[in-house]
């Protein structure tokens, strides 16, 4: 900086101090200009807040945003073009549902315990959530291109240029007021030409700053159009998400209806002594005939004891319990898969595991049989035939 330039800067600083502390009067600008200055200051703050909060709306997790920014910056330093996507919470939740839904579905091999319906429902919801995550990625890209980028340009170029003109105006105003104050002193070295040049530069800067602020404030059509673009993008995102969720809810309702209409079985925990009983009866517990498996818990309770009259380990078995499988296998019979409560006269009620003697087949949907001294009709899909009718 030249000596003249340094002297000029010192005069401006001196004038500013005199105005703030000494009460020196500054050249006042018109009210319209001051009002536009306030509006531009508001727009400057607004643009910063909008950029920040819109990014937070698209990517709510601050830790994930920071980690993503660090990863992308590291990739850029290493010369890699790969960019890491923000982990959408819908996609993360969907991955969990798909993973464990698959495990539940693949593990449901027992006829008694079937979790496939729930596992498949988890998988369907997980896939829907992953589709919603893709829709959110599309929203992210659209908003960035059509709203954030123009807003960033507004802040970094248009508003910045106006603020530059205002800063230059402030410097020239201080220079003009300083020379005007010195001119009024007796014996001043400030000529009329110097004062006139300072005034002309001041007026030139004011005109540039005022025109820039006016043009920026008059661009409301463009600003509102960008807001409309943002609103349309958000609307499209919510419409697509709503459509996906409506389809999912319909599928889940069908699964609820299907599960509700399916006959329910009552789980009865197996006794620890069952395998021991099967061993002493000379049968494998996994291949026990249905007739034996259907005997009530009271009839099946047997013990082996050590006494003076029996050898160690001899099994005392109830005669009726031991003979019932052989006796019932000699005639057509079936095993109850579920409990059946009769709702109409003539129907036969039974419990899961009961062994029912078959006497007749009414049609493709109904059997006739007897159990526990009672006779009646019962549905075919509630039982498993052990010895078929001849």
Automatic annotation (TrEMBL):
Localization per Swiss-Prot or TrEMBL: Early endosome; Membrane
Domain BAR residues, every copy: 18-261
Domain of life, source organism: Eukaryota
Matches recorded under Gene3D superfamilies: Arfaptin homology (AH) domain/BAR domain, SH3 Domains
Ranges of residues in domain SH3: 329-388
Pfam families assigned to the protein according to its UniProt record, in alphabetical order: BAR, SH3_9
Membrane disposition: Peripheral membrane protein
GO cellular component assignments: early endosome; glutamatergic synapse; membrane; presynapse
GO biological process terms, semicolon-separated: synaptic vesicle uncoating
Listed InterPro entries: AH/BAR_dom_sf, BAR_dom, Endophilin_A_SH3, Endophilin_SH3RF, SH3-like_dom_sf, SH3_domain
Keyword list, A-Z: Coiled coil, Endocytosis, Membrane, SH3 domain
CDD domains named in the record: BAR_Endophilin_A, SH3_Endophilin_A
Family matches, as PANTHER family: ENDOPHILIN-A (PTHR14167:SF81), SH3 DOMAIN-CONTAINING (PTHR14167)
Family classification: Belongs to the endophilin family.
Protein name: Endophilin-A3-like isoform X10
Natural source organism: Branchiostoma belcheri (Amphioxus)
